[in-house]
Amino acid sequence: MSVIARCATFVATKTSLKQQFAVNNRSSATKIVRPYSAVASINKKAFVDAVAEAAGVEKKVAENVVNAALGVVTASVAAGEKITLTGFGTFERKMRSAREGRNPKTGDPLKIPAAAYPSFSAGKSFKDAVKK
After folding, report:
1. Are the CB atoms for 18 and 9 separated by under 8 Å?
2. Would you give the DSSP letter of residue 109?
3. Is residue 95 domain-shared with residue 108, that is, in the same domain?
4. Are 4 and 72 in contact (CB under 8 A)?
5. Coiled-coil region(s) at which residues (predicted)?
């Protein structure tokens, strides 16, 4: 069973989440909420607050959903799986090849080992929304 399937099963068993979303099953999730438009960046708490307002749910429920979503993305990418959210973007793990570098202090050559790193490629809808 993949990481995504395990996390989806875990989230689906949380009846309080299912009940909250069943009660608030309206199109508010598609509504754009910009309570922090004057701020250059927002932290996780502000993001959770915006999600709670957009979805019409309690902040604790929104926090659980955000944490679960971030956990799924992190675990899946760490396991080498690719996550594509159509219109938003793709999260994946990429490899940086081994290469030769130089010690900046002494100038001696040294080998830099291959390394994995997370990558995000923005989707078309997300790019178009940012351009406006």
Report:
1. no
2. E
3. yes
4. yes
5. none
Is 112 part of a structural domain of the chain?
yes
Residue carrying structure tokens 């701020």:
39
Global model pTM greater than 0.90:
no
Computed over its alpha carbons, how large is the radius of gyration of the chain? Answer: 20
Contact of 93 with 99, CB cutoff 8 Å: no
How many distinct structural domains can be found in the chain?
2
Q: Which residue has the tokens 């989230």?
A: 11
What is the torsional sign of CA 21, 8, 66, 41?
negative
24 within some domain: no
> Which residue shows structure tokens 């396991």?
79
Only one residue has tokens 């570098």, namely 101
